[in-house]
Amino acid sequence: MRSRRLRLRLWPALAMLVWLPVQSPAGIPPENWHWARIHGHRIYYAVQGTGRTLVLLHGGGDSGEHSFEQQIELFSKHHRIIAPDQVGQGRTPDVPGPLSYSSMMQDTAELLRGMKIHRIDVVGFSDGGILALMLAARHPELVRRLVISGVNIAPEGLTDEHREGLIAAQSPKPSNIDEKLTQLWLTSPTESELNPDVLAKIQKPVLVVSGDRDAIRLEHTLEIYRALPQAELCILPGTDHGTFSGRPEWINPIVSDFLDRP
Description:
Helices cover 33% and strands 19% of the residues.
């Protein structure tokens, strides 16, 4: 991994905050929802807006509609939004067996290939950011640039407080979606799924976002940033894991500026 001086930028877009009102949350209309059969099961996804394709990958146990409720209306004015719900989450039904980042990533890649789209922009929050990195590493032809927030590449990236909470909540035989998610977060991403060497091969612009009080250790976020060859770093002050929901007045212009670059 090549060394690089840490660049903590004061984003020019922050100067626009007084001029950009926060969008009111708006649900995705029923007619914008679709489903596809992927690897033998259904995946539900929403499509909204026009312009360059932007894929929104939601956080664990959530949905695209909810994880990005403060972004969808704004971003769909200039982008064609595709927001899939992963297995067992949002509108997509669960399937037997444990959850896997690799399986969810392959479901997402197959959905995009079936829609015959490539060179997409991807915004991933938490688990969605993990999937975004895996997608860019294993299917680089699909991806143009990435925004990731609150992402870890190993369970050890979680803060001690959050890991202890998951350990206390784990079940010996996970069966429902909450138990499956707890097991996933305690054991994944595995080293074979993501590691610094995998990140070093991602030759795409990546905006790495974190709250300074995130559920991911700041040191771990910096490791991810330093491993990515074309990364920029944005740390939001006084902010926890919920960057997109809690700080839309900051994050929306920053992400828009990053995605609008050629």
